[in-house]
Amino acid sequence: MKSAGIVITNSAELFHGGNLPMIKEIEAAGYDLTETRIFRKDNEGVYLGVKACLEWADNVFVVLCGYAAEVVAEGLQRALGGKFMRGSVGGAGMLEIGEKTLFLLPTQESAYLQEVCFPYLEKKHGRRVGSLVFRAVGADEQKILQLVKKAEQYADGRANIRREHAFGEDVIRVFYDERTPRMLTDDLVRYFAEQLADNLYALEETTLEKQLVDLLKLRRKRLCVAVSFTGGGIAAKIVSVSGASEVYIEGLNTYADFSKMQRLGVSEFTLRSQGAVSEQTAYEMAAGLLQQGNCDVSIATTGLAGPKDDGSGLPIGTCYIAVGVEQNVYVYPYRLEGDRETITQTAIRYALFLACKHLKNL
């Protein structure tokens, strides 16, 4: 059984890094999307893309974000023939084309996906499917590749293993069905959990920011953030989580040196002697938040994202991430690679991951 995904969106930012809940929901149910294509307009290219996927895939999931389902459905009918069946009020539906099936899914139709599409597929293919997920940050590239290769050799075709990588974060998914031995899936869980122990943050479909907010609630802690080169990226991630207001107090974008001094208490001596991008500066930024007494946990970042250096002689990609927890501050130095966006986005994920790691250890 082969499956493909088609995403039609009018938002260039929503799918940055491939993080679309509906797609993740499909994969979490055990349907391995061998290919996912993203289109930003409803045009003939979309229908050609769907046709191309139907040539090799048994099932094609068309996810809509920002487009009327009725309009897309009419276009698909003209391009492919047939009629949609078992439609919902929200515009979701299924189109059978010979032995192939196309699912039209507006992003708000999660219930339709769970209650109609998955039972239909189970009956169609005569078997249940499932998946495992391992989410890690900062793991060595070669180590990850070797782990996946060994796991594939061990699975020997009885399960499909897929790795996704973006901005320092790895997601490994294992897809299986009811014919896969339980001992095999149990062994794979132990294998990845043990080998990725220092970098693993979740064995479920979640995000770093959701994990952080959940841990803050569980530990009854409040968080403040002070950043420099990462801009408002960390805050944006946190506030995207429902209920973040219960644990998130404030975020300061202290880009200039005088802002670090006035708002966080970073000493002028530190800035002059060690520079804005230094371990001591990151330490004082995180400590300054804790000393104000408004939070129990703090995150601070300072670094060089490029493309030009700041005249300090430090290489582009140098950064320091500090996490303060209950009067203790821990600073982590990194030398990140890539363009400005890659460095920034990677640092954001590292910062969220490190905060989660310290909260888990409380």
Topology:
Layout: E1 3-9, H1 21-28, E2 33-39, H2 44-54, E3 59-65, H3 69-80, E4 93-97, E5 100-106, H4 110-125, E6 129-137, H5 141-155, E7 160-166, E8 169-177, H6 182-195, E9 200-202, H7 208-219, E10 223-227, H8 233-239, E11 248-253, H9 257-264, H10 268-273, H11 279-291, E12 297-303, E13 318-325, E14 328-335, H12 340-360
Parallel strand pairs: 1-2, 1-3, 3-5, 10-11, 10-12
Antiparallel strand pairs: 4-5, 6-8, 6-9, 7-8, 12-13, 13-14
Helix pairs in contact: 5-6, 7-12
Provide a descriptive summary of the structure in words:
This protein is of the alpha/beta class and 362 residues long. The chain has 3 domains: 3-125, 3-Layer(aba) Sandwich (Molybdenum Cofactor Biosythetic Enzyme, Chain A); 129-202, Alpha-Beta Plaits (2-Layer Sandwich), CATH 3.30.70.600; 208-360, Maf protein, CATH 3.90.950.20. The chain has helices at residues 21-28, 44-54, 69-80, 110-125, 141-155, 182-195, 208-219, 233-239, 257-264, 268-273, 279-291, 340-360, and strands spanning 3-9, 33-39, 59-65, 93-97, 100-106, 129-137, 160-166, 169-177, 200-202, 223-227, 248-253, 297-303, 318-325, 328-335. Strands 2-1-3-5-4 form a 5-stranded mixed beta sheet, sandwiched between helices. A 5-stranded mixed beta sheet has the order 11-10-12-13-14, sandwiched between helices. A 4-stranded antiparallel beta sheet has the order 7-8-6-9. The longest helix has 21 residues, at 340-360. The relative contact order is 0.09. The model has no long low-confidence stretch (mean pLDDT 92).
